[in-house]
Amino acid sequence: MISPGPLGAAAPRTDDPVVAPERHDAPPLPQPRGPLTQCLVDHLRLPVHELPPLPAALDDPVEGDDSALALHLLYELHYRGFDAVDEGWEWEPSLLRERRRLERAFEARIIERAGGIPIGLSAAATRDALVALADDDGDGQGTLSAFMAAEGTLEQLGELMVHRSAYQLKEADPHTWGIPRLWGRSKAAMVEIQRGEYGDGRPAEVHAQLFADAMDELGLDNRYGAHIDRLPGATLSTGNLISLFGLHRRWRAALVGHLALFELASVGPMGRYLAALTRLGHAGGAAARFYEVHVEADAHHAVVALDDMVGGLLEEEPILGGEIVFGARALAAVEGRFCHHVRTAWDAGGSSLRSP
To answer: Which of 114, 172, 245, 299 has the most CB atoms in a 10 Å sphere around its CB?
Structure first.
């Protein structure tokens, strides 16, 4: 028997197929890039159901287009989702089963690229390792930003902004998953950093909004998810890494290390991108403001991250020093591959983005 719904109408059966409504605040599903994403996209277009085993990935878990896009799709269900995709997919057990399989391969390759997870690091050794990573330019950002400051073109700067849009248009959100996983001084420090990223409560100053304004000034589509089809696996994996760390409590220390290096190594490159904009005739605009804000904010955030966020976590859990350093090394590893991809394409006279 079907019970009556509002105004006497029959309530729908719970097992009836439900068509997900259109959501204009969410991006459309991207185009598949191989058997893995083709199968995943085909299922996500349907009402929530038991997901069969996905095809095995045939490419590299970090740099492969099919693998990286598949993990990006699964993680995005925890952020804005996708237009006309049922939001019930977010916690579907069979989907989480398949995500875990992809994560295992991704984790294994990241651990390999980062040189393993150090064991038995003291608080002092952890701090020294983070500072050394920030000074070493192991992630390639210093080299890439120096190139932009000296000779990069406005078109190349636009390419970089398109690459970064997948993360910057939700800037800080993946790290925010870490707040409920910390406590005491480390929690307070992460909250302070994230509050700055969210504009200290002022919507127009939210860093993601500042980046959208910067893209708009340079004539780029600033809609969330608008450029996913053009982003290679090496770019998508820079964001996948933060989501992996943020969505798993067991990686909380790696997330702290990732964010700490993010802040420690930011000021120099951001200043050089600002210099590039000035050289290219865009001083004083919305694009310049995005980089100016980061130069100012990240100098303070670096101190908070190292002294209080890292220091506070190590006071509570001294055993996590190696995992903190691993998180920073993982960041350097994926950023290094991203920067190598960009410079290789540019040195060959081509675009670093995928063909539309």
So the answer is: 245
